[in-house]
Specification:
In addition to polymerase activity, this DNA polymerase exhibits 3'-5' and 5'-3' exonuclease activity. It is a single chain. The chain is of the alpha/beta class. Among the domains are: 257 residues, 3-Layer(aba) Sandwich (Rossmann fold); 202 residues, Nucleotidyltransferase, domain 5, CATH 3.30.420.10; 102 residues, Taq DNA Polymerase, Chain T, domain 4 (Up-down Bundle), CATH 1.20.1060. 47% of the residues lie in helices and 11% in strands. It contains 37 helices and 23 strands. The chain has a six-stranded mixed sheet with strand order 3-2-1-4-5-6. It is globular and about 115 Å long. The N and C termini lie far apart (80 Å). It binds a DNA duplex through α24, α26, β16, α31 and α32.
Length: 929
DNA sequence: AGAGTCACG
DNA sequence: GACGTACGTGACTCTG
């Protein structure tokens, strides 16, 4: 049947519909493997409607479902910022794009996309063809950009409101007829698509001007005549930009299409194809509905056990099936598989654990459970028994640079999700080889969001626990201790089995964990607090901080001398030489030789010689104080002034810590290798170590820290009005507490009283006990208990909070932060003497965890906030961020960073107390803090 | 490898 | 009524 009068063409804006379906529907996943299919399901429902309507009086005779083709369009050449504001499509939507094409074909409808053009252009061209052929055309879309096509038998149908829009409807919306819509849009611009337009002119004004001057060109030519100076100026100054805008919004109605309108004739779905597809997607309801409609029996969709339930293994692990990728052709096959899939599990093998130093040895990939490969890149051939064999490149491996050239576009492709276990590690490795891996998903972080507090989140733990599979131990390949080898020396055949298995495990964990985010209601935690932190931390770690090696070296020497002096003195007082660093020997000297009071302690039966014990003994004997001094110096030297020098990276000359994101159960980060979160500050001598952390010439270090963040959060969570008011009014919180508790005036407060109140405030955060407070304040336990009773009396909300939190933990097995992070508290089930630990941890976790969430949010927003400013975020110390800033930009940076930090809870959580940030700057960390 | 000690928030 | 306690980390040293 040729297209003409009496025919009715439906043009469905497929791409727009996918987004609508995605956002309107809850995130549905395919039960068997967790594939996200929410948008696909919505899309199928929409197509079903089209098919159902085909019998009605207004039925389409011809249908085309039109999609945007991926990649650039001709509009990007006209204006490089076109649609530049668009965020990339959500991770769980991307794999659904190809599936909606499949759905369209399964419904036996024409599925159309053309490279270099948007769906709108194809719709425009088809609409013109349909109109000129004398038929009716209905555009199924609510995109206002398509309104320019209306008229002459072309109408739009808003699929959501089920409303028809004709020429009158366009007038209503734009104030002009369809033929002038582009002129109005060119003037008004569009912030969503980043069409510039004329600043200060919206749709209303634009319509007014077009109606007055007839069309856009006349208006621009006669712009001088406009009376209002602002409008006149805007049009004159932006004439070129407006003309560009018009070219952006104007749709191409004259594309060369390689098919005819006739080919769009509507055909009934082929039952096998359609039901097969729906069965594949495991869409039972829809499948049944359609089967009934077609008078067929719905195919049985096996009720696959949900992946989240135990023993999900459809396929076992078989190391012999993993592929050794030996050449470019083999690699290309895998890249093709990845593009067909939309995601890939990736794992890198390297010569060590320090991402800043090690070399890449190989890469493993996995696209489907059991289907994994290893790409050896820098393995060294086995020299056999010949000790003098020169190291040679192993056979059957691709040149590293060639492989990376092939992989880089995939690793950076926004449409391909790269899944890893601790992706920060791999992303940093790839970054050093010139690939910015994005977007990413991380099974370690998925587990952290789901199971925080229950167990650690290393791959071995996760695999054994959730896949019931014990991975090949790395030790079996590398050996242990001194004789351990690096991964490049591992025979490739062995490496394939180990490395590919890791990628396989990672993919299987991802398929299991990802759908559980929604079930456990921690999607936001993962998406807002975990995943976006990865690139931020990677950046900080790679940047590192400058450390003055000579200053550390000088301090080490000074400490060594002082220690030698102290050691001699200690030996003399002890009466005989011994190892001062040995608590065992020290205990014997103190309690056996010198017969000082104090006893055994601990399961080992050894004497306890901790700082508090030695402090007590200092009144009895001269030696303990000397040992304390010696210990302090020993600590400073071994842990800081010596060790930090070894951590200076030879290439960058800076120190690069590594943050573990999933280490602490509360949501805090932990810094390792070296730990830069416990650099001394409390003692004068220790604090001098911070002088060695410096900024390069022309820059300074800037430190910003939250003031009393945990107490503020406690005040909010527990709803303590007195505390909240004090924070709102900027009062000294510890003095206020003291005044409230001991009935003393704020003026002329005794520092001792304030100190006690401060200790109580901290104690509350930790789940206070009489014993703990007594020990901290060195007061009788009865007295400490009296303080606590009084505190609860004055701030009754605290006690309620503690009881309710413990109750919640007992009932649910976890507690929550204000941002929804779940911290599991298995310790709460402990009976007997250990019960207190569980309770206190449960009380502390929401407070510490909420503070951790707040600074995470600030850090995640920081790169955008300081973009363009000469500032780099270097370190995080729980409530403090340290930046390296150009000297002349400090004030600007402090302003921006403080604003981000103080408002970090917004808009997810509205705190009832203000967050306050203090700032400092200086040539080194000691000055900045 | 585990205990003891001590650095930080 | 006794238990045995502040919360969260990481690094270093000694010891078996």
């Amino acid at each position: 049947m040729s297209f003409g009068e009496g025919c009715h063409l439906h043009l469905i804006d497929g791409s727009a519909f996918i987004f609508r379906a995605y956002h309107a529907l809850p995130p549905l996943t395919r039960k068997s493997d967790g594939l996200p299919i929410g948008a696909v399901s919505g899309f199928c429902n929409m197509l079903m409607k089209v098919v159902e309507e085909s019998a009605g009086h207004d039925a389409p005779t011809h249908v085309a479902v039109v999609f945007d083709h991926k990649g650039k369009t001709f509009r990007d050449d006209i204006y490089d910022k076109y649609k530049a504001n668009r965020p990339p499509a959500p991770e769980d939507l991307r794999p659904q794009f190809p599936l909606t094409r499949d759905a369209t074909r399964a419904f036996n409808l024409a599925c159309i996309e053309v490279e270099g053009f948007e769906a709108d252009d194809i719709i425009a061209t088809l609409a013109r063809q349909g109109r000129e052929a004398g038929g009716r055309v209905s555009i199924i879309s609510s995109d206002k950009d398509l309104m320019q096509l209306i008229g002459g038998g072309v109408e739009m149908v808003d699929p959501m409101k089920n409303k028809r829009i004709d020429s009158e409807g366009v007038e209503e919306k734009f104030g002009v007829g369809p033929n002038r819509v582009v002129d109005v849009q060119a003037l008004a611009g569009d912030s969503v698509d980043n069409v510039p337009g004329a600043p200060g002119i919206g749709i209303k004004t634009a319509a007014l001007l077009i109606n007055e001057y007839g069309d856009l060109e006349s208006l621009l030519e006669r712009a001088e005549e406009i009376k209002q100076p602002k409008r006149r100026q805007s049009l004159i100054e932006n004439a070129d930009l407006i003309r560009i805008s018009k070219r952006l919004v104007e749709l191409d109605q004259n594309m060369d299409l390689d098919f005819t309108l006739e080919s769009l004739e509507m055909k009934a779905p082929v039952a096998d194809d359609l039901l097969g597809f729906l069965a594949d997607m495991e869409l039972r309801t829809l499948s049944t509905r359609i089967a009934n409609k077609l008078g067929l029996e719905a195919p049985a969709i096996p009720d696959a056990p949900a992946v989240s339930s135990a023993a999900p293994e459809t396929k076992g692990f078989d190391p012999d099936t993993y592929e050794w990728v030996k050449d470019a052709a083999g690699l290309q096959t895998w890249i093709d598989k990845i593009y067909a899939r939309g995601w890939v599990a990736v794992d890198t093998e390297t010569t060590g654990l320090n991402e800043m130093l090690v070399d890449l040895v190989g890469i493993s990939l996995c696209v489907e459970a059991g289907e994994a490969c290893y790409i050896p890149l820098a393995h060294i051939a086995d020299g056999g028994d010949d000790l003098f064999a020169t190291e040679a490149v192993a056979e059957d491996q691709i040149n590293l640079e060639d492989a990376l050239t092939m992989l880089r576009p995939m690793l950076e492709d926004p449409a391909i999700v790269k899944i890893g276990q601790n992706m920060k590690y791999d992303a940093k490795i790839f970054a050093r080889y010139g690939a910015r891996v994005a977007p990413i998903d991380d099974t370690m972080l998925l587990s952290y969001a789901l199971h925080g507090g229950l167990h650690n989140h290393g791959m071995d733990t996760l695999s054994e626990r959730y896949l019931d599979h014990k991975p090949i131990p790395i030790k079996s390949l590398l050996g242990t201790g001194k004789s351990a080898i690096t991964f490049d020396k591992v025979p490739v055949a062995d490496a394939v089995k180990y490395a590919a298995e890791d990628a396989d495990i990672t993919l299987r964990l991802w398929q299991m964990f990802k759908p559980q985010l929604h079930e456990k209601q921690v999607t936001k935690v993962y998406e807002k607090l975990e995943r976006p932190l990865v690139p931020v931390l990677a950046e900080m770690e790679m940047h590192g901080i400058e450390v003055d090696r000579d200053a550390l070296s000088r301090m080490s020497n000074t400490f060594a001398q002082k220690m030698a002096g102290l050691e001699a003195e200690i030996h003399e007082k002890a009466g005989r030489p011994f190892n001062v660093g040995s608590p065992k020997q020290l205990g014997e000297i103190l309690f056996d030789d010198l017969e000082l009071p104090g006893g055994k302690k601990g399961k080992t039966g050894a004497y306890s010689t901790g700082a508090d014990i030695l402090e007590d003994l200092a009144t009895e004997h001269e030696m303990p104080a000397l040992v304390l001094d010696w210990r302090q110096l020993s600590k400073l030297k071994s842990t800081y002034t010596d060790a930090l020098q070894d951590h200076i990276n030879p290439d960058t000359g800076r120190v690069h810590t590594s943050y573990s994101i999933a280490g602490a159960s509360t949501g805090r980060l932990a810094s390792t290798d070296p730990n830069l979160q416990n650099i001394p500050v409390r003692s004068e001598e220790g604090r001098r170590i911070r002088e060695a952390f410096i900024a390069p010439e022309g820059k300074v270090l800037v430190s910003l820290d939250y003031s009393q963040i945990e107490l503020r959060i406690l005040a909010d969570i527990a709803g303590i009005d007195a505390l909240k008011d004090a924070f709102r009014q900027g009062h000294d919180i510890h003095a206020m507490t003291a005044s409230e508790m001991f009935d003393v005036p704020l003026e002329g407060m005794d520092p001792m009283i304030r100190r006690q109140a401060k200790a109580i405030n901290f104690g509350v955060i930790y789940g206070i006990s009489g014993f703990g407070l007594a020990r901290n304040l060195r007061i009788p336990r009865k007295e400490a208990q009296g303080f606590i009773d009084r505190y609860f009396e004055r701030f009754p909300g605290i006690h309620t909070y503690m009881d309710q939190t413990v109750e919640f933990a007992k009932e649910h097995g976890y507690v929550q932060t204000l941002f929804g992070r779940k911290i599991h508290t298995p310790g709460i089930a402990e009976k007997g003497p250990r019960a207190g630990f569980g309770k206190r941890a449960a009380i502390n976790a929401p407070i510490q965890g909420t503070a951790a969430d707040v600074i995470r949010r600030a850090m995640i927003r920081m790169p955008d906030a300081i973009q363009g400013l000469p500032a780099k975020m270097l370190l995080q110390v729980h409530d403090e961020l340290i930046f390296e800033v150009d000297q002349n930009a400090v004030d600007d940076v402090v302003g921006v960073v403080r604003h981000i930090m103080e408002n970090a809870a917004d808009p997810a959580v509205k705190l009832s107390v203000p967050l306050v940030v203090d700032a400092g700057q200086g040539a080194n960390w000691a000055e900045a803090h």
